[in-house]
Amino acid sequence: MTTVTSLPRTDRTETLGAAPAREFVALFGLDLDYPTDGTPVPLMGHWMYFHEHPSPSQLDAAGLPTQSDVLPRPEQGTRRLLGGGSIEFHRDLLLGAPAVRTSQVTGTKRVRGRSGTFTITTLEHLISQKGRVCLRERQDVIDHYGPRTAATPQPAAPAVPGVTLPIDATTLFRFSALMRASHRIHWDENYARTVEGYSGLVVPGPFQLIAATHRIRTLRPKPVRHVSFRYTSPLTLDQGMVLSCTDRTALVTDSTDRVTSRIEILD
Fold first, then answer.
1. DSSP for 157-205, written as a single string
2. Which of 70, 147, 187, 226 could join 267 via S-S bond, C-beta 3.0 to 4.6 A?
3. Predicted confidence band at 138 (pLDDT cuts at 50, 70, 90)?
4. Which is nearest to 208 in space by CA: 262, 249, 248?
């Protein structure tokens, strides 16, 4: 059953600096004009802004925040992750100008699945400039109860041959720094292996989504205006990252053809 929480709406204002956008373009090797004030934020680049800034005492052993001004406090013993969502791009966000992100929880539901019991919290972000909504994002945030369990393999059925994306530990470190992501599974290989039980560093879901969406962008005659995404299984660095894209869809798989992300363009 879905319930609506009583958390208030949260507004956060930030001037969208050009320096993070330059790092974003360089990190993903994008064929875009050099970002300067007055030019658009790169597609998916809104994730570089509006971060929370927890103190060390507000992080748990995994490097995850223990409290938030947007999301409910995670329950003891749960693991929090982004499961999927959708993003609508209404108009360009411009660098060098202030923007406002309005965030609100729109519902929660408790689910029992093959991997255990978890709570899905639906979060909505609206990002505006000069009083006009430029972007609407829905995020499904999952709090999983109990120990991490192995994912059920999901064989891929790519519509087109896949392209292997060359990434390494330095790439993931730079991405974590850019996104202010402190979760240790993305940059501390010893922790990821010995504590969380992964076979290597975990490639962040947003990294997969950004890379896939920009690959789709190069295949389309018109701009991406509405994207839906779902993360289906962890992807570790040692397994490789393969993109199989059309002008409307993308599958991210590892070298064994296990699907880790599904992306669809809805416009």
1. --SS--EE----HHHHHHHHHHTT---GGGT-HHHHHHTS--SSPBPPH
2. 226
3. very high
4. 262
Distance CA 221, CA 108 (A): 38
User: Cβ of 182: how many Cβ atoms within 10 Å?
Assistant: 17
Q: Which of 130, 149, 168 is the last residue of a domain?
A: 149
Statement to judge: residues 100 and 194 lie in one domain: no
Please check the confidence at residue 253 and state whether its pLDDT lies above 90. Answer: yes
pTM reported for the whole predicted model:
0.90
What is the domain-level CATH number for residue 198? 3.10.129.10
The residue range of the domain holding 203 is: 152-267
- Separation CA 208–CA 236 (nearest Å): 11
Owner of token pair 């989504």: 209
Count Cβ atoms below 10 Å from residue 128 Cβ, excluding itself.
Answer: 20
Residue of 4 and 200 predicted with greater confidence: 200
Q: How confident is the model at residue 157 (pLDDT cuts 50, 70, 90)?
A: low
State how many domains the chain has.
2
Given 149, 179, 202, the domain boundary residue is 149
